[in-house]
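hey
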């Protein structure tokens, strides 16, 4: 008899929660993609996720993933879709465009231009999400939804021919109250709906929001992509 791994058990439990949240929200299960966030975990963890059927993977840092990639290739993992979900400095944009299937944290025109150049040289379109900041915490990254920088970026995107905007992502303010997260998710959806009207030529279909502690709320508020680390892989080792 095959033994069920901790990952498989966690996945089954999360799937159950996703199904229930979708049912409550009147949304089909296929409307929500599950991303396994493998930061701090080794390449073997990614391989286990892929073997269990979770082929969408999120990594936070360019260098960290770069160091895992040779092992991942050794393990024969070639079919995973790996997104960068951590902050990206523009000087690492070329490497990021080479390593990742998509960049989910674009937060400046300068970064978008660098990524566009890199994707052009690679000869393949690069899907992106724009990261939106919904809290006043100074440490948080992302663009102010009401500020001029977001508008400028959106106006310039059609000229960046190698980038493919897919939608928005956000990390809610650090706060344990689920209703705070709900308010952020609701705001992101409203921001998206408004931008989609104002920029009808751009694709805003993806809403990346929801993590281990709040993904069911995010699904109820319209998330199309939930990013799950701890609830799948267990606690991360402390730095
Ligand atoms: C770490 C991380 C996650 C996963 O967080 P968990 O609470 O462990 O599920 C999701 N999104 C981003 C951007 C992260 O950095």
């Amino acid at each position: 008899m095959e033994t069920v791994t901790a990952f498989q058990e966690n996945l089954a439990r999360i799937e159950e929660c996703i199904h229930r949240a979708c049912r409550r929200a009147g949304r089909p299960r296929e409307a929500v993609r599950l991303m396994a966030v493998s930061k701090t975990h080794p390449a073997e963890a990614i391989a286990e996720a892929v073997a269990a059927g979770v082929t969408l993977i999120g990594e936070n840092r360019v260098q960290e993933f770069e160091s895992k990639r040779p092992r991942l290739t050794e393990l024969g993992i070639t079919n995973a879709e790996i997104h960068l979900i951590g902050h990206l400095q523009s000087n690492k944009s070329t490497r990021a465009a080479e390593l990742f299937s998509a960049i989910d944290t674009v937060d400046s025109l300068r970064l978008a231009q660098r990524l566009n150049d890199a994707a052009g040289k690679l000869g393949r379109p690069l899907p992106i999400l724009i990261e939106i900041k919904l809290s006043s915490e100074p440490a948080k990254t992302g663009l102010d939804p009401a500020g001029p920088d977001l508008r400028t970026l959106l106006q310039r995107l059609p000229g960046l021919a190698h980038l493919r905007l897919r939608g928005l992502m956000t990390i809610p303010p650090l706060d344990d109250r689920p209703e705070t997260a709900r308010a952020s998710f609701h705001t992101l959806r409203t921001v998206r709906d408004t931008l989609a009207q104002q920029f009808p030529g751009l694709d805003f279909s993806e809403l990346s929001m929801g993590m281990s502690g709040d993904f069911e709320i995010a699904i109820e508020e319209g998330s199309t992509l939930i990013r799950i680390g701890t609830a799948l892989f267990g606690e991360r080792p402390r730095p």
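The pocket of pyridoxal-5'-phosphate is lined by residues 37, 39, 60, 85-86, 171, 211-213, 227-231 (CB under 6 Å). Residues 178-198 form the longest helix (21 residues).
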